[in-house]
Design goal:
The chain is α/β, with parallel strands linked by helices. The protein has 3 helices and 6 strands; from the N terminus they run βββαβββαα. It has helices at residues 34-39, 98-103, 135-145; strands spanning 6-12, 15-23, 30-33, 66-76, 79-88, 95-96. Residues 19-32 form the Peptidase A2 domain.
Length: 157
């Protein structure tokens, strides 16, 4: 289910603006696009540089490098937080990070944290299989290695 955008009051300097942002509990950072930066009347020259790091999107593709970032106060229903907001080209919908969703009470404290690192373990790569050329030798090997999981015709009677 796609979350519904929420209307966030964004305070930067002396001005307050409203911005529809999509809560993204899988996001590590809060991001907006260049168009949103212009709507907020924040000059490009006032952005702070960010270190060049590779960031991935939800589908695993590489995100365009950040143009820069700025700090603002985000407010929603009496809750507020200070946010570092990254500006990226090509962002169509502003995204609110998991941390900011928590601070603004959009999600419950019981909401599970996203996995920050996934380690894939493939036991098959650790096993060395003997080099066999005959089907009967391969069959014998599998029956020996996996006897606890394989059934024979006799087991079915």
């Amino acid at each position: 289910m796609t979350p519904t955008p929420v209307c966030i009051h964004l305070v930067h300097g002396e001005s307050t603006s409203r911005l529809q942002m999509l809560p993204d509990t899988g996001a590590d950072v809060t991001v907006i696009g260049m168009r949103h930066l212009q709507m907020l009347h924040i000059p490009l020259s006032s952005l702070q540089p960010l270190p060049s790091t590779t960031m991935l999107t939800a589908d695993g593709s590489v995100m365009t490098p950040a143009v820069g970032c700025f700090y603002a106060t985000l407010r929603l229903h009496g809750k507020s937080c200070t946010a570092k907001i990254q500006v990226h080209e090509g962002i169509q919908t502003p995204l609110l990070s998991y941390g900011h969703c928590m601070e603004l009470a959009i999600i419950s404290p019981a909401f599970p944290k996203p996995l920050l690192e996934v380690k894939h373990v493939n036991r098959c790569t650790e096993m060395t299989l003997p080099s066999t050329t005959s089907p009967s030798a391969a069959r014998a090997h599998f029956l020996r290695e996996f006897s606890d999981m394989l059934l024979s015709k006799a087991d079915l009677k």
